[in-house]
Amino acid sequence: MAKQSVPSVAGRGLSGELRQLRRARRLKGASVAVQLGWQPSKLSRIETGQQGVRVEEVAALLAVYGVVGEERERLLAMAERSRDKGWWEAHGTGLTAWSRTFNLFEAEATRVVSWQPLLVPGLLQLPEYTIALMKGCDVGAAEVETRVAARLARQAILARDDPPELHMIIDETVLRRPLGGHQLMTRQLRHLIELSERPNLSLQVVPLACGGHTGLDGGFVLFDFHRHPSVVHLEHKISGVFLEEPDQVAVFRRAADALAAIALSPADSKDIVARIAAEHEREGVSDDHA
Q1: 3-state secondary structure of 188
Q2: Where is the HTH cro/C1-type domain (predicted)?
């Protein structure tokens, strides 16, 4: 038997979307396979990323699921690129192809390592913090609601019976920037402390006193999976990119290890978060009396 190739990021993202489409329509995999004249095991392998899928096979599935128009064209374009290594996508309004894949990976990962030098990680954001961020970045009012709802949906993995292991590393600057005002930051930082009590979540802060370090050239998210190779995601203002080559992933894993080594321990990190939250609270009271 020929050895199956490792599915690419685009292929894995497509597999996840096809699985979600079937489930959203409350269709059994076996019944879909019968309609298409396939063995049920074939559809199962496609949906779990164990088998590649041709463009014509995706078209057949979309016909069964009643997907038409722009959504059909988007998924067929993904199918055409499903064997390509690496994946770059431009941002658009709402959930783009890359953000859908990011959300799927986040939900399926067994471990997520995130380095954020500027902002509270999305999984840990209060809705008000997300709104303040979107407004600060000049996101259109019509798009803010969609993005906030998507971010809240992502956070559902925190309440799962089997949540992924989360290792969140942030810069002290994240804690001190009064995004949305001091009162909001007080609530956001106390929310971080509450979340850090979860057994699957480790929060570390890199103090400003560290000076220069390997994380100053930007944030990243590293996903580890049970059966699939690890993937790194980099997000930019108008684009996002997934890296999947082992040597590329290794660069970011070393960076994450280096950042964890210079960061405060989880206990000391919790202390500095609490201390800066108290500072924001005092500033917020001063603002009210100004």
Answers
A1: helix
A2: 18-72
Q: Give tens-digit pLDDT for 108-157.
A: 899 999 999 999 999 999 999 999 998 888 888 878 888 888 888 888 88
Give the contacts of 283 (CB within 8 A, at least 6 positions apart): 178, 182
Residue with tokens 């899928």: 53
Please check whether residue 52 is in contact with residue 82, taking contact to mean a CB–CB distance below 8 angstroms. yes
31 vs 157: CA distance, rounded Å? 29
**What tens digit of pLDDT does each residue of 65-109 get?**
888 888 888 888 777 776 665 554 544 444 455 577 788 888 889
Q: Global pTM?
A: 0.73
Q: Residue 171's closest CA among 221, 200, 210?
A: 210
Rounded (10°) angle between helices 141-154 and 127-136: 140
Helix (H) or strand (E) holding 78: helix 69-80
CA distance 85 to 82: 8
Task: Tell me the CA distances in angstroms from 270 to 10, 189, 204, 263, 274, one per residue in order.
Answer: 37, 10, 8, 12, 6
Taking residue 235's Cβ as centre, other Cβ atoms within 10 Å add up to 16
Q: For the domain bounded by 87-289, which CATH number is listed?
A: 3.30.870
CATH homologous superfamily, domain 9-80: lambda repressor-like DNA-binding domains (1.10.260.40)
29 close to 44: Cβ distance less than 8 angstroms: yes
Domain ranges of the chain: 9-80, 87-289
CA 148 to chain centre: 14
Determine the residue type at 104: L
Pair of tokens at residue 170: 């942030």
Q: Check residue 6 and give its pLDDT.
A: 52
Cα separation, 86 vs 89, in Å, equals: 10
Specify whether the CB–CB gap between 234 and 240 falls below 8 A: yes
Which tens digits make up the pLDDT trace of 205-264? Answer: 999 999 899 999 999 999 999 878 899 999 877 677 889 899 999 999 999 999 999 999
